[in-house]
Amino acid sequence: MSELRELREQPYDLVVTGVRLVSGDGVVTGGLAVSGGRIACLLGPNERPPARRTLDGGGRHLLPGLIDSHVHFRTPGLTHKEDWAHASRAAVAGGITTVVDMPNTVPPLRTGEEAHRKAELVDGTSLVDYRFHLGVAGEDPSPLREVGAREATSVKVFLAGHHTAPHVVRDPVQLEKVFRTAAEAGLRLLLHAEDDGVFSLLDEWRGAPSGYAEYERHRPRSGAIVAVARVLELVRRHGTSVHVLHASTAEEADLLTAGAHAGLPVTFEVTPHHLSFTAEDTSRVGARTRLSPAIRYRPDQDRLWQAVLAHEVATLGSDHAPHTRAEKLRAPADAPPGLPGVQEMFPAVHTGLRRRAPMDSPDAQLSCLVRLLAEHPAELFGLDERKGRLRPGLDADFVLFDADERWMLEPDAIRSKCGWSAYEGWTMTGRVRQTFRRGVSVYRLDELGHDVEFGTPDGRWLDARRPADVEPR
Ligand code: DOR
Ligand code: ZN
């Protein structure tokens, strides 16, 4: 508390007025003051304390800086696809101020020491703050016991592989060890829950897909359902805290919701692309929406939206996984799955919510997004003492958002190094106008919506605490 009092006694660095402050519980009119990179206090509608700089939000919404807990920024080793400088520009343009990066790089990220080396590589190139998920493969998982919360609180496991995911845990005995070790070490497991064995069996019988019209059928829902059922059984046996990534089918949403309802420590994520596209789009546009897991048909998409609206989903994650145009133009069997999404996620899902929940007020829709993209990821990954809310004492990360502005994603506005987007030509509702990270503007769009100004790439490798629900045993 004394730190807070100190913040209040200093002259404010920045005061934002005339905004609608969004939290997961609702929206209030007011403003906030910033000191030393933190939120010093929230302000009522008529409070305008003196400050070095002021910003009048003109009645727009102010959201906490968003957290994308599922990105592949490709450092090290895959920087021809994406690099941190481009990716973090894409992030702040999409209202994201913190990312948690995936370990399937070259080499993969497996230890606390490697996390320190990776942070050195990223240092000085990032507009956003960041953390890393560690990875495991088929080898002995016991080194995970040595990992401190400083380095990581979460470990990603691939149960199915593909071009950029060669390290898969296929052996059931090894998988069991990973679940047990993670539970003992107090690490949350993140699962790519699709069963490789199911896919190989089917491919051996039917042959590999010849075109995108067949793609979904060759990475079918059975692979995801089998894997999720297995994961639930392992959670039941070992008590491991698990977050299932990119749920794509109705059955996964049902099983995971039922598991949580039964008291298992399971949560799940949905991606913007599974909410935005269907398998018909993949047949039509091909490689751009070739994803792992595959994009499904309308009834699955409807169930995923229902899961978002019914508070069954814990987080949205972009699964920002760019590949070059040339890689995507390869023959279907060789074109890698993945698409960029860190820039598109927030406006695309906001646009979808407007359509899917027209009876909800714009305020309620934004509260829903703040839960999924700020509060919940901060809690799941131990960042909630610094990130995720507009609350005095927390980092002054926030996004000025015009919820009614309609705009089109033009090719020259794409910030990812890959230079393409599956959402090109989409008309979006709701636009990020300005993004602040630790009190400093890192992205600003001019009033006409053409020119942008990025800040200094001084994003930090964040410390985190072990979330209370994954205490070591
Ligand atoms: O489509 C995907 N692309 N799914 C993954 O699991 C990984 C990602 C990538 O790294 O390209
Ligand atoms: Zn991913």
Automatic annotation (TrEMBL):
<dbReference type="GO" id="GO:0005737">
    <property type="term" value="C:cytoplasm"/>
</dbReference>
<keyword id="KW-0479">Metal-binding</keyword>
<dbReference type="GO" id="GO:0004038">
    <property type="term" value="F:allantoinase activity"/>
</dbReference>
<protein>
    <submittedName>
        <fullName>Dihydroorotase</fullName>
    </submittedName>
</protein>
<keyword id="KW-0378">Hydrolase</keyword>
<comment type="function">
    <text>Catalyzes the reversible cyclization of carbamoyl aspartate to dihydroorotate.</text>
</comment>
<comment type="similarity">
    <text>Belongs to the metallo-dependent hydrolases superfamily. DHOase family. Class I DHOase subfamily.</text>
</comment>
<dbReference type="InterPro" id="IPR032466">
    <property type="entry name" value="Metal_Hydrolase"/>
</dbReference>
<dbReference type="InterPro" id="IPR011059">
    <property type="entry name" value="Metal-dep_hydrolase_composite"/>
</dbReference>
<dbReference type="GO" id="GO:0006145">
    <property type="term" value="P:purine nucleobase catabolic process"/>
</dbReference>
<dbReference type="InterPro" id="IPR050138">
    <property type="entry name" value="DHOase/Allantoinase_Hydrolase"/>
</dbReference>
<dbReference type="InterPro" id="IPR002195">
    <property type="entry name" value="Dihydroorotase_CS"/>
</dbReference>
<feature type="domain" description="Amidohydrolase-related">
    <location>
        <begin position="62"/>
        <end position="440"/>
    </location>
</feature>
<dbReference type="InterPro" id="IPR006680">
    <property type="entry name" value="Amidohydro-rel"/>
</dbReference>
<dbReference type="GO" id="GO:0046872">
    <property type="term" value="F:metal ion binding"/>
</dbReference>
<dbReference type="Pfam" id="PF01979">
    <property type="entry name" value="Amidohydro_1"/>
</dbReference>
